[in-house]
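Margin note from the TA: students keep mixing up input and output lines. Inputs are the sequences; the output is the structure of the whole complex. Example:
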Amino acid sequence: MIGPLGGCIVGPLLLAAACLLLPSRLARWFALAGGLGVLGCGALLVADFAARPGADFRWLEQHDWSRAFGAAFTFGVDGPAALMLLLAGLTTAIATVAAWQQSDRPRLYHALVLVLLAALAAVFTALDLLLFYVAWEAVLLPMLPLIGLFGGEQRRYAATKFFVYTLAASVMLLAVLLLLWNSQPADGRSVAVPSVVAAAHVDPVHGTLHGLVLQGPAAAPRVHVPRGFDLRHLALQADAFAAVPLFGTTLAVLGLLAVLLACLVKLPAVPLHTWLPHAHVQAPTAVSVLLAGVLLKLGVFGLWRIGLPLFPSAAAAAAPALGALGLAGILWGAWAALGQSDLKRLVAYASVSHLGFCLLGLASGTAAGIAGALVFSFAHGLSSALLFLLVGVLYDRAHHRRADGFGGLARPMPVFAWLLLLGALAGASLPALAVFPGEFLVLTASFTAAAPFPAFAAAATLSGILSAAYLLWTVKRVAYGPLRHGEQAAFGDCDGRERAALLPVAVLLVVFGLWPKPLVDAVRPACELLAALLQGRSA
Amino acid sequence: MSAGTTSVLLLALPAAAAVLCACLRSARAAHAVAAAAMLVATLLAVPMAVEVVGSGAVVVGPHATWLDLGRFTLGVGTMVDPTGAVLAAIVALLATVVLVFNAWYMHDEPLAARFPWQFCLFAAAMQGVVLADNLFLLFCCWELVGLGSYLLIGFWFDRPAAADDAGYQARKGSGARGVLEHRLSPSHAQWKAFVMNRVGDAGFLVGIGALLAVSLQTGAEGDVLSFARLAALPTADLSAASLFGLSGESLLVLAALGLFCGAVGKSAQFPLLGWLPDAMQGPTTASSILHAATMVAAGVFLVARCLPLFPPDALAVVGWLGAFTCLFAASIACVQWDLKAVLAWSTVSQLGLMFAGLGAGAAAGGGEAAVAHLFTHAFAKCLLFLCAGAVIHGCHGHQDLARLGGLWRRMPVTAAFALAAVLALGGAPWFAGFVSKDAILAAALAAAKVPGGPGFGPFLLACAGSLLTAVYLLRWWLRIFAGRERQLEVTQAAHDPPRAVLAVLVLLVPATMAAPWTFGDWLPLPHGPEHATATTVALVLLALGSAIALVVWLLAPRAGRDLAAQLARVLRPLHTACAELWGVERAFDLLFTRGLGRGLAAVVARLDLGGERRLAALELDGAPRPLPASLDGVVDGLARGCADVGRAGALLHGGRVGVYLAIALGALALAVLVGWSA
């Protein structure tokens, strides 16, 4: 029987089939239903984790796949995954509303969005590495046509680049998968359970850890881990992977490198980011919303789920380099955004800059930093969605996106101008808007982390100047001053459909800006567990 | 009602009023709601201030944990100490007055309904800064104060740049120099204010981060950023703390300078001062609160609040920079012709004087002196701006000191109020500024005598600044109100504001007098031997400055020529430098806006994706291969390389029998060769 998490994957797939088979006017309703369904599951889970904080996995379900490979359809959600699931559902719903009037092949379009949602939900809920990998790659399949068929003039170039770049970066994951399988003894392995893991995960009723029977004294429990791909079992064998020699180094180091390559391209980290501006500029508005809102977060989530827990010792060693990459992304992205004339490209580079904070927070290895990175990911989904939607509003009216081709729109379009200001202020990390808590946590955590992270944090504070400069400059150029182009006086303000997409995002930005506690509480225990594991390794 | 509960209401009332007013379409209703909320806040705040000042105790209000991060928490809560209580009351009172004044001032302004909610947001954020019980909440409200100023400065968001604005050109100060008119507009001024403040805030964040790191390294946990916990930091054992290779007290110096950096931005100190004169693009009523009790006051308040955290080295920096700004801005104020610009630079100068006082340190009584001057300055500056607003309103927007004059006949009450404010600000005896400015000079003098202190530099700079203060303030008043009317078409329609408005304005007048501020001994101003010296010095400077201003003004008409112009000719290089703002605006523009901003951004953007031509040619098949001069070009180059390898390989499988035969023979030869050598 399929549980709710399986439903988050199967449901959208069934709805996608329905989109293709049933009349086209129903397709958007199916896409909306899919998004809202996942949104509901995510919201329930986040509420659950916020009310009963814990580092455990919830809503676990398992279905047979391949016993020979030790692979199974294992689903489960921890706090960060709940947050991401919520974000995936929310963004899909918003993007669907934004594409409500899709006239070009609507059935195909909405079916692709639903397939994308299913793949995303699978990534966020998979607890099996093989399943994770399949879902990770499956995300690309709907994205290729979504950009390549529905995009702008250079859509073929952008879609090809996006697909080849991200695929090439993640194929090495498959090699790691096989190496991990090969390094496990056929009859499994007896491993010591770190006390923090035992404290966080042991089922008090049955005395088991992820279904594994505990052995030995309670102070130093051991478990017998079967050979397979269950991520929870793999994480228990982290020390064993760090001891497997491979090509002159260890499996853990090479494994981390492969995961990093896959995740840093997705994130994207400078200098692996140049696919992003093309993809964003060419993608239709709603697809940009999905791309910035959720797809970039795959990079954060991959590091969270695979990179850091499976290879903690290598990750601890690589932390300064990762932090430096994060800082490079923050500053390079900000300055590149400052130099853009195309509004969509500007927002794309703002994303590059912002996702640098996620990398910095994850690399800091502190609970607050990791929690900040995850909450920041969620908030960035909202703020970037708002900005891309607003650029879309402009494009629908003016059919161009040149920043210098607008001016004084606050008179004819007041609601648009206020929302643009809100989005810009959120992106500039104003307190009381949702991006601020995550960014503040990442910064303060980096100040309290070991050297060189305080120096990274000090340099990262420059982003506050730069983001305010380029985002508010955009507001000034587009919305304020006298009307520069007479015909724009006739532009209508955001209509009902546009407001239906924009206002929920704006409201959530304010709500989670004033009250981020549930988000942070939901992820914190899991972050503390990971931070403890990382610090145990680096010490 | 306890002070703790009142403090929450002081925050909640303006915030609620802001939300409510944002929903109102009618300007009258919105002003009424906002003014009512502020009036209630004033009526709550004044008794609270009296109570707290009377007891001298720090009252801790409600506190909640905003985020719990295990090792530390971030909290939201209020606390009320005498300084905070008085400032909160001043904010509420001045906000009420300004709102009432604004209802009249903007009676024919189509956008007037926007003013109250933005104004209330501004006031609420400032109350947050004043009443926050921890540095984190203070920072959040600090940023929201920045938002409030952003909104109010850009109130007339659709005005063009000053160079293209016929109205601005007709009414601007004559001989306005140093102003980049092609860039001066409300929408640019608001951007500039926000971004310049963010420059300071970057330092503020480093300061917070350093304090947090030091606290955690010394074993603290919980709400480590609360002021109660931070105050204990200087006496704690800091030997375990280290950050950026610094340790011990030098870490505190770093943290203190970080906080001061934030204050430099918010309070428009050198070199982050260019935004404040530009902020005059906002409504005069917004300026009157921005220059008095909110925004710029926040920086001084922050340093005063965190003064225990400032080691002597950091204090010396504060004192020197403040005193330098005091003189620097006063020199500029002397040669301005725009009536609001004089007041703007005056604010910068007076804030510098406050920092000079703070830099003298708590031991010399600098903290109390600076705070006292913050209070007296708030009333005087608010009143001055409201009078300026009345003048501008009466003269249809004209604000050129060269064309105004003789207005005391047409608006006698305004002239009297403005004179009271001028005397208060200039530090005339029996007026409020006399008390507080003396205290600052005395504190600076006391600090100068301490070995290892900042030395006599800050004191001397502050003295020079005080001299010029008397000059420019008197010049300002004389040029507007005294003498004959220079241009009748400008001034003939001027009149005092209606009685109801004057009745509210008159509330501010007693506060410009000395008596209320010396009533009781709630602010223990320094009364050492330095005090007598400082009083003498201040009086001599005041007399000298007033004499200069009077002589220049009196002699001007009789000589047939304007003596000011003559003086300007003699002192031309100095005059030019002052009028050009000592080049600081242009330098800032060149270095940051064009250099590090646009220039570097263009380079980065070019290195990242390549130029527009490359981007336009991406989709064209058979487009010439540009050199991979950009990051993205390198990626494409790699992709092309792979494709070329593939194409080369494809040649081998092209179906040509000759190629296959050659491959087969080559392989055979290779096999034979290898076999033989083996």
